[in-house]
Automatic annotation (TrEMBL):
The keyword Transferase applies. This is Acetyltransferase (GNAT) family protein. Residues 144-288 form the N-acetyltransferase domain. InterPro entries: Acyl_CoA_acyltransferase (IPR016181), BioF2-like_GNAT_dom (IPR038740), GNAT_dom (IPR000182).
Length: 288
């Protein structure tokens, strides 16, 4: 960590408003001029951050000595709060300002789990990244349209995603009421994308903007009766163009596992869509 990293803009997952909506009553934040970490206190354990896809340490224009000073300050503060163990879900490397898990392991953290995740750099044409099979699907004439929806479609989109998840034997991981609060509180951080056929929803994605230049593929779903038409391929292409036009750098496709078990078909789809495999690492450190 001898070189300086980019300065990150605030991540909305690490705000008091986000914690309040998710009822994380023991939310705390420690920050300095060069680093920050937000966490939730759970007895003798501090977790950064529950109910969020990413957490951990972020730095801005920091040298190694600056970060080590901040880490020492953080550990002292946590010990005064009665915390004996710190656990962090460290953001992947393409998030600006995220501290490398390798650095954390060198200074006493231990890896608990490394989950497969993917991202797409928003450079050039997506077609040049696609597997030939997905490219053929994109080249076929479409019987549906892709668009950005207004907030008025939020209930319809949530109900659609929930039904699609139920068809797979899964549950959507956020209620409509909570999603509505999130969109109302952070309207600039959510974008709804849909594919419609004669006004009927056949695919949808709720995208979030955790931090400047990164868009997160938060809630995707495809109607089971329309999977043969591959609407998600064209919808991701639409999402790619939308964020590329707005000068974003990456799409975070998220982890591909359920309770730590890799979802091979999802991994294959993301990589066919140009996703680059990396890891989201959860680490912990005993403080006494």
């Amino acid at each position: 960590m001898s070189t300086k990293l980019q300065e990150p803009l605030p991540c909305f997952y690490f705000t008091p408003e986000y914690a309040q909506i998710h009822k994380l009553d023991s939310y705390q934040k420690i920050h300095s001029e060069c680093a920050q970490i937000s966490f939730f206190l759970d007895g003798e354990r501090a977790v950064s951050m529950p109910k969020s896809p990413i957490g951990g340490f972020f730095i801005e224009n920091a040298q190694k000595s600056d970060f080590l000073d901040f880490l020492n300050k953080t550990e002292n503060a946590l010990q005064h709060m009665g915390v004996r163990k710190l656990e962090v879900v460290q953001a992947p490397h393409f998030y600006p300002g995220a501290v490398s898990p390798t650095i954390l392991e060198l200074i006493g953290f231990q890896q608990r789990v490394a989950e497969i995740t993917h991202y797409i750099p928003l450079e050039g044409k997506l077609e040049d990244r696609l597997h030939s099979m997905e490219k053929r699907k994109l080249d076929k004439p479409a019987s549906f349209t892709c668009q950005v929806e207004s907030e008025e479609a939020l209930l319809e989109v949530h109900q659609f995603i929930s039904r699609c998840r139920q068809e797979q034997g899964l549950e959507i991981n956020i209620s409509y009421e909570m999603l509505q609060k999130m969109v109302e509180t952070f309207p600039e951080r959510y974008v709804l994308f849909t594919a419609r056929k004669d006004s009927q929803l056949i695919a949808a994605v709720v995208m979030t903007i955790p931090i400047e230049a990164v868009a997160y593929y938060f809630l995707p779903a495809t109607h089971p009766d329309h999977k043969s038409e591959s609407p998600m391929v064209r919808l991701i292409h639409h999402i790619y163009q939308y964020f590329q036009e707005r000068k974003f750098h990456y799409i975070d496709l998220g982890i591909s596992s359920i309770n730590g078990t890799p979802q091979e078909s999802l991994i294959r789809f993301k990589e066919n869509m140009g996703g680059i495999r990396t890891e989201r690492v959860t680490l912990w450190k005993q403080l006494d």
